[in-house]
Amino acid sequence: ILTVHPEDFQAEVQPGVLRLDLEDQLSKQYGLFFPPDPGANASIGGMLANNAAGVRALRYGSAAANVLGLEVVLADGTVIKTGSRSIKQSAGYNLTQLFVGSEGTLGLITAATLKLAPIPEHFATATIAFPDVTSAAHTVHAVMGMGLEPAALELLHADHIQWMNEEADAGFTVAPSLMVEFTGASASMVAEAMATTRHVAETNGSTGFSGTSGLSARNAMWRLRHGTRERSHRRFPGHKWISMDASVPISKLPELISYCEEKCRERGQESRVIGHAGDGNIHLGLHYDPADARAAKAAVATGHDLITKAIELGGTCSGEHGIGLGKKQYMVPEHGAEAVDTMWVIKRALDPNGILNPGKILPDLP
Asked: Residue 110: what are its φ and ψ, rounded to 5°?
């Protein structure tokens, strides 16, 4: 951590700083935090290179929305600075956003100026159970349409709720559920928003409500949420996993979830859909015994179907996990050949010898 400017809600950091270390220092010394929260204790450089998001992106945006400037080393060793410390910037090409999310294919981030936010005064969190995932998805759209502005709005499968109960004796109703959080300057404001959300959920058939307030209770709930992936992997030792990360406009979320469940039923798979439902981003983790070739093929097929459907609905193959090697084939279907050709022009201009994270993001040239 190079410098903190608490009066401007900014910090200048190097890429190896870990998210939780940064959050710990900012909260204790300044009452501030860096909003992106992907769950894992990622490095800041990795979060920026991947444009990480997480549960708080609904209110604060992804990593791209929380960075003002970068120091970047180009392929030839040239060091450039992008952006400035001004919140408003309209001077030339937005090179900061070019490098954020580029997965190290255009340059290496060596420093960043981050936007910070004050820790809210009051928190209200709740887990709301539903008879099915579709009812939960319709509630998401209704809540967002009312302008309630939750800080987080997460979708969880019934199995994940059950595993949370077993681990922490949480007492949640075992059913498809939404985890909701409101924050604000007054307790009455967040309580009113939560009460309205509860009413909306009840009109959509909710079957259980477990609410609480305060920072410590809030942190405990999100620790359970962030442990979902590891908890799932422990349940099926030795299995391989394919994780999908599709995102669509929130009006299309119920359709995408229904389609996903249908494809899983057709192939005899467990559809444990979770995700950042408030911004239309869902994750589907499919596991299989590596010795079962048929199951492996089916998992790949379902992943392909989900991504193809998301693109068809006006969405993306990746809301936050990035492209890497595994999703290069979807770049042209999502963006079009002309746009991908333009990306190649940028790549060749900045990395003519192809030495920066070669083979990632862009499909091979014909």
From this structure: -115, -10
Answer yes or no: do 12 and 110 share one domain. yes
Of residues 317 and 226, more confidently modeled: 317
Cα distance between residue 31 and residue 119, in whole Å? 6
- Does the pLDDT value for residue 213 go beyond 90? no
The reply to whether 192 falls in a domain is yes
From 167, 198, 228, give the residue that closes a domain.
228
The dihedral region occupied by 255, where left means phi > 0, alpha psi between -120 and 50, and beta the remainder, is alpha
Spatial CA neighbour of 14 closest among 113, 114, 116, 111? 111
pLDDT digits (tens, 9 = 90+) for 334-356: 999 999 999 999 999 999 999 99
Say how many domains are in the chain: 3
What is the tens place of the pLDDT at every residue in 135-164? 999 999 999 999 899 999 999 999 999 999
Closest CA to 303 of 250, 264, 359, 249: 264
Please say which residue of 228, 248, 278 terminates a domain: 228
